[in-house]
Amino acid sequence: MVYYIASTTAPVNIATLKYWGKRDKALNLPTNSSISVTLSQDDLRTLTSAATGPELRQDKLWLNGKEESLASERTQQCLKELRTLRKQLEDEDSSLPKFSMWGLHIVSQNNFPTAAGLASSAAGFAALVVAIARLYQLPQSMSELSEIARQGSGSACRSLFGGYVAWEMGKEADGSDSKAVEISPMEHWPQLKAAILVVNASKKDTSSTSGMQLTVKTSELFQERVKTVVPQRFIHMKEAIENKNWSRFSELTMKDSNSFHATCLDSYPPIFYMNDTSKKIVRLCHAINDFYGTYVVAYTFDAGPNAVLYYLQENEAKLFAFIYKLFDKVPGWETKFSEQDLQKFLEVYE
Ligand code: PMV
Of 17, 302, 308, which is best to mutate to test ligand 1, by the most ligand atoms within 8 angstroms of its C-beta? Predict the structure, then answer.
């Protein structure tokens, strides 16, 4: 048997300016542009291998060791587009093997809980599209491939790039200009770190697609968000990243997380993604920043209760000493904070 195989990894990305709302559900076209930070490959990532060969008749997928269906419309759309691009190459060069006619076997492994509000679909679709594009030896750029990944899961388009990434919403009805572009590579601002506080690792109640639809249909606050708030924030956040302006970046990140969750609450009936522990984390972050009189930490929450905290490397000990004391059992941070400082902090926090 002859097999051709290609593999890739795609990391999770966490939006600092949130995508929430689709102007076209089938094409996954957003109502606003968004910005994210892609985590390092050593942290949360999907590893995907794609194989094809003349004897493979069907497309099959194994996710975390279990066979899963490839039947969803979104996955089918990605496979169709990738095959069409491969077919074009085969039509131009008849010596190429006919990959576009053969089945695909895809094996994917996440190193974190799937569908637990940790952006697993973003890393999953990004890895799927890039692995197949490599297998098919497609000449398309990452930005062009991001248009395909976008159709699998909107936020997936941003996971094709490392570092700081913008998803430009575009204007075209066919989505041909709705793609991810790099703002800066990770090396531009390596001091920026992310920590994930897993509040609840179970599957989320309201999927992002149905949540978005409800918000777009029913929230008046949402109209204001997409018309005036996000377009300005997009410019300012890009500038904050380019200038490594940490305090500006932190403020905008927290405000945008709050604004997104406010539109969820303004949906009718309301959608609650954050729980009491999430709110405790928000309060804690503000108290830490107040205590130090400067931005030490910025929180952001996606469509679930888990928190992503951004901070600068130099402030790691300052931050985790508090987290350890208040949430217990974070190993490694036990000795980093004096009791006296903790007492002073607790007076402010409680
Ligand atoms: O890509 P989706 O359909 O899973 O939606 C992602 C939505 C948020 O995570 C809440 C925001 C974002 O920009 O990633």
Answer: 302
